[in-house]
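Encode chain A's predicted structure.
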Amino acid sequence: MLQQLTSLAAGQSGLVTGEQAARIGIDRAELERLAGVGLLFELDWDVHQLTSSPFAPRFAYPYAAWLSLQPARFAAERPAADAVLSQGSAARLHGLGAVAAPTTTFLTPTTPTGRFPRAIEVNQAELPAEDVMVLGGVTVTTPHRTILDLVRSHTDHGEVRGALTDAVLRDAVDLARLYDDLVPLAEHHEFPPEGPEFAGYFLPELNPSSLSVRNQRAFTSVVLGDRVTETARALALALAAVPAGDRVSEETVRALAAEIVGRTERV
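Encoded structure for chain A:
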């Protein structure tokens, strides 16, 4: 019986729900006995973790919450993306900022129905594959999508600021792409969309020299967008006058322009 429980938990990072245990013939009294001799302990939501499991609390708690959404089904019977950790819960898993997360929040592709375990929130949203990743065994929104969802869910801007700064510093997001996706949200969520003001609002203490090359260039484009555009035009004209110069992509030209402006202006 213990071997069956261990085999089941092994496929779930050392975790098992009470209802899953019942499916293999282990009742609550037996779970309590195993806990009493130190072989497992209850995390929350009637989800138990084997003491031999190395699964850290940072990952174990959101994974336990995911299991508790459908406690009778084994993880192997569920698509990993049937519920994706999101918003503040995702930010905490990624280690972005210090976002308050009073509930463990998931996004599901279908409209949620029924009651959910205590302190778990489930919302409906279609998530493209590019917005989903697996971190430490937990299916979670990417840092890019997480920042967007923090803004859309009216998270305090100070908390968004911390999460965004961490994401950019760690190169967990492409600042250029993220800025483009945030600008349409600016009016409704009351933050400045213009490049210099945006940077001053959300990235006030950022030292560009500590960024990756792509985000250094992106930061320059955000702060000095007009200068970068002018320089890109000049570069394009110069390239047009040399053999094969027209084969250089517009994206590459703008990246070079941002590099030049960044170095010239010591951004």
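The CA atoms of residues 79 and 139 lie 10 Å apart.
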